[in-house]
Amino acid sequence: MGKSFSADRHTLTLRAEIAHHAARLIAEDHMHDFALAKKKAARHLGVSDAHVLPSNQEIEDALASYRAIYQPEHDGCLQELRHKAVTVMRLLRSFTPWLTGSVLSGVAGDHSDINLLVYTDDPKSVEIFLLNERIEYQHLEPPPTHRHALYPTLAFWYDDTQIKLYVRPRLAERQNPRREEKERASLEDVQALLEHDRTLIF
């Protein structure tokens, strides 16, 4: 029983060490992929057992602690990114955009991009809209697992921040979302979030 307790305690300690190292990678090296950050942290610490890897929630908790100590300016940076997101979402209001990714979750840093989702069965309409607004954009290479070949991922810049706009069919909105799309917020949700943050500050 003593050995089992000791092993469990050692595992918890390793998980915490990996989580804090991954948090530092995210905060300082601007890594936004939690899976990659935790694997890189584990390799750095010489850990190969996948069962020891911390959960994303543990990394988020470690990241919050890290930023509270070493990056106290982070809250202001996050608010600025969310304000930018609201501005762009208002511009895209006719497509009912959703905010997703690190700016929504709160782990974004000053070099993070803003990830938006729009669902439409007419993907060309989004590009035509951007052209009419004289917004220069580019097509990003879709991930290998991308299932909607005709629906692009577009990138453009707003106020020194890159916006990644994921165009997806309406059917995808009704289906179970992909893992990275599970957390999403409407324009009204983000505005409420900003109001909540402002209340906490003042």
TrEMBL record:
Q: Which domain of life is it from?
A: Bacteria
Annotated InterPro entries: NT_sf
Any idea what this protein is called?
Answer: Nucleotidyltransferase-like protein
Which lineage? Bacteria, Pseudomonadati, Pseudomonadota, Betaproteobacteria, Neisseriales
